[in-house]
Amino acid sequence: MERANAWKTYDEKTKTAVFDFAEDYRQFISKAKTERECVEESVKLAKAAGYEDLNEVIKAGKTLKAGDKVYAVNMKKAIVLFNIGEEPIENGMNILGAHIDSPRLDIKQNPLYEDTDLVLLDTHYYGGVKKYQWVATPLALHGVVALKDGSVVDVTFGEDPTDPVLGVSDLLIHLAAEQMEKKGSKVVEGEALDVLVGSMPAEGKDDEKELVKKNILAILKEKYGIEEEDFLSAELTMVPAGPARDYGFDKSMIMGYGHDDKSCSYPSLIALLNSKKLKKTGVCILVDKEEIGSVGATGMQSKFFENMVAELMDRCGDYSDLKLRRALANSFMLSSDVSAAFDPNYASVFDKKNSAFFGRGVVFNKYTGARGKSGSNDASAEYVAKVRKICDDNKVNFQTAELGKVDAGGGGTIAYILANLDMNVIDSGIAVLNMHAPHEIISKADLWEALKCYEAFLKDA
What CATH number is associated with residue 84? Predict the structure, then answer.
């Protein structure tokens, strides 16, 4: 059952739309590299599309009705948006869910130190990474520093073309004989991923120590108004510097940081913002912490989503605990997360009959997990049939896949968490090359087909 290449189905008008949407996405991920930045950009887009802040609606005691559009933000790191449908929410919602965190290097709370006239920041990597991929590559610093007076300082360093960049040094090949004998997981150790940030000493006495660190602290004070102790209440992270780029002679692909999972979260968001009058309430939820198990107050395992659905039903004048439970159980969801694209360079880890391929459309994973589907959702046959019909009726190019050969590895998504609420959920997303590397690659055709799929799902599920 080989699927057709989507590019072959496009006329010139459609190709223009594909490239225009891909350019909007490329600009979005170039700006929104952290979950905070993604939420901030999403709020801007939502407001422009006529969405109101649900918390403001609650404060004003406003009643909501079909056709109203609201959003709610959770601790600046997660967001949920609702387009209220004609049917009672108790009848269920059509939900698009994705995550907006990506693998990176987080700065530790006590990170700054000087060694042999070099100043470095100590890091702790976040999510599943091949650590050796993060050395000798230009990095930028993103995040916030919360001060004791209650103010919060935004930090972005290394993105402006006039900015210096930062990075992790690598061992020269001339001295790497022992290193090259190590396993890939040990070539670069986690504690060796320290970021070099300066080497020029401040003025001082000949016997004064740590003058380079003194100089760096002076720069941070002048630029951001922060002291060394302020690192204790900071959320700072190192991400690849620079914008996402078109990829390939034909510009058919995009290379950039964070396709996992913004290549799914962005079309999910835009699909909801594009939706007009819906029968069932349409929802887009974008959450944090998926890369480390969806835990914490801003992860999918928190009560934020359920709480916001309860608040929404209350504003519609139709809340009870039983109706909330019914609303969740009657809902349909696409857990929008990326899938592994078949790579001819590493064909041995893929089952070619059950792999995702570039340009063949949005990917459905009936199950994910590892070691006998452990940790997966495994959608029902009936729900898979429903989703297939929606795609076929709306001329959406789609494919199905597994995450590599049995026992070759595996992974998980937020799907099982929503399925725990007794709703129908299936994983759907985009095929990615270089997944979890600093620079990942996607097909523009697949991005377009994901948008079409998500719009059709909101309308017809």
Answer: 3.40.630.10
